[in-house]
Amino acid sequence: MARDEGVAAAGAGGVAVPILALTLGHVFSNAVRTLPAVAADVLAADLNLSAEGLAAVTAVFPASFALAMVPTGVALDRYGVRRTALALLAVGAVGAVLAALAGGAAGMLLAQAVLGVGCSGMLMCPVTFAARALPLPRFALWSGIIQAFGNTGMLLSASPLALLVEWRGWQAGFWASAALAVLAWTAVALAVPEPPLPRSARRTVWQDAREVVTLARSPALRPLMVFAFASFAAVLGVRGLWGGPWLMEVKGLGRVEAGNLLLLCTAALTLGPALAGVVDRLLGRRAALMAGSHVLVALFILLMAAGGPGGPLASALGLPVLPPAFDGMLLALFGLTISFQVLIFPAARAMVPAEQTGRALSAINTSFFGGAAAMQAVSGVAAAFGGIAAALCSFAAALLLCSAGFLLLLRRKPPVAVAAR
């Protein structure tokens, strides 16, 4: 079982093409979930929502994503990557169409729920395929490549989709995302081999689902679950929702100019995972790199908020507000540094047998997106009381708290896979 899919792929000319075909789904997922960052104002106006209301509606995406992770993890180990990817991409395409057709808050809420389910395996499918097909050192490298390639979806939702939204409205952005899902489905159907069913029929689906929950609660994975809770929440909150409104409403930029600065962040998110893999191999201090990157990211967020109108940093420099170039620099540093979150995947993979890979990685992803859903709701409340700066700062607080919890749990029972190269 350990390498059924990898062996089949090798016969078709290697693992690179199937992995990249599967990663197109991750490109789609990143594009569709970060689209609100460049369309928040028109989305809120057309759907008759406040900023915090839009945050609550879009929080349904990571919430349904997190809920779908248990059955997704079971499906990856029970039915294989190809079948799971094709089913989820079809659901994702339907979700994007529902979003494009949404005429009100209820319609968009339904669309976000369907999109969350459809996107739930878009990272785990290529990661699980690679974990089964490759030895651990090569998997660590490929996990960075998968994340980097997948993050190009956020390149699409920066300047290109900002231009499309400006020209044809936010609906066009979701139609374009639906087309991307269809392209990814076609690539998977053509390039990814169909392996034998990887699990015995003697085990029930319920037993497999319970194992995902058991893995999530295990002492070995517990530090990683705490780390993950704030990690993707920060990406989705800063790049996916509040970054655009901050640049447009607080800093006074137009949609395309804001999209260009978000493009800097996305370019850094695309380069960062590969850099993280190289630094991890050179230094071999994975736990310190993971926690330290989160602390630095929290600092960058706090500095961005402090440079806003009347902020302490702007006031200390004798300026009413710091220029948007300052935010662009911090957003680029944010993207480069938060990318060290990718180190969680080789850490988790080293802790479980190959046949449990899909469930273990899905357990981690449940925390990624469960935290994103919770923090998106918290950020909406923070915005209602203190504006967009308060919403941004809520993610900085979560990063600091979860980094402290991660290190504390490692001190109690340090997992070898996190501490080692």
Automatic annotation (TrEMBL):
<dbReference type="InterPro" id="IPR020846">
    <property type="entry name" value="MFS_dom"/>
</dbReference>
<dbReference type="Pfam" id="PF07690">
    <property type="entry name" value="MFS_1"/>
</dbReference>
<feature type="transmembrane region" description="Helical">
    <location>
        <begin position="7"/>
        <end position="28"/>
    </location>
</feature>
<feature type="transmembrane region" description="Helical">
    <location>
        <begin position="328"/>
        <end position="348"/>
    </location>
</feature>
<dbReference type="InterPro" id="IPR050189">
    <property type="entry name" value="MFS_Efflux_Transporters"/>
</dbReference>
<dbReference type="GO" id="GO:0022857">
    <property type="term" value="F:transmembrane transporter activity"/>
</dbReference>
<keyword id="KW-1133">Transmembrane helix</keyword>
<keyword id="KW-0472">Membrane</keyword>
<dbReference type="InterPro" id="IPR011701">
    <property type="entry name" value="MFS"/>
</dbReference>
<feature type="domain" description="Major facilitator superfamily (MFS) profile">
    <location>
        <begin position="18"/>
        <end position="414"/>
    </location>
</feature>
<feature type="transmembrane region" description="Helical">
    <location>
        <begin position="224"/>
        <end position="241"/>
    </location>
</feature>
<feature type="transmembrane region" description="Helical">
    <location>
        <begin position="174"/>
        <end position="193"/>
    </location>
</feature>
<dbReference type="InterPro" id="IPR036259">
    <property type="entry name" value="MFS_trans_sf"/>
</dbReference>
<feature type="transmembrane region" description="Helical">
    <location>
        <begin position="360"/>
        <end position="378"/>
    </location>
</feature>
<feature type="transmembrane region" description="Helical">
    <location>
        <begin position="109"/>
        <end position="127"/>
    </location>
</feature>
<protein>
    <recommendedName>
        <fullName>Major facilitator superfamily (MFS) profile domain-containing protein</fullName>
    </recommendedName>
</protein>
<feature type="transmembrane region" description="Helical">
    <location>
        <begin position="261"/>
        <end position="280"/>
    </location>
</feature>
<feature type="transmembrane region" description="Helical">
    <location>
        <begin position="85"/>
        <end position="103"/>
    </location>
</feature>
<feature type="transmembrane region" description="Helical">
    <location>
        <begin position="53"/>
        <end position="76"/>
    </location>
</feature>
<feature type="transmembrane region" description="Helical">
    <location>
        <begin position="287"/>
        <end position="308"/>
    </location>
</feature>
<feature type="transmembrane region" description="Helical">
    <location>
        <begin position="384"/>
        <end position="410"/>
    </location>
</feature>
<dbReference type="GO" id="GO:0005886">
    <property type="term" value="C:plasma membrane"/>
</dbReference>
<feature type="transmembrane region" description="Helical">
    <location>
        <begin position="139"/>
        <end position="162"/>
    </location>
</feature>
<keyword id="KW-1003">Cell membrane</keyword>
<keyword id="KW-0812">Transmembrane</keyword>
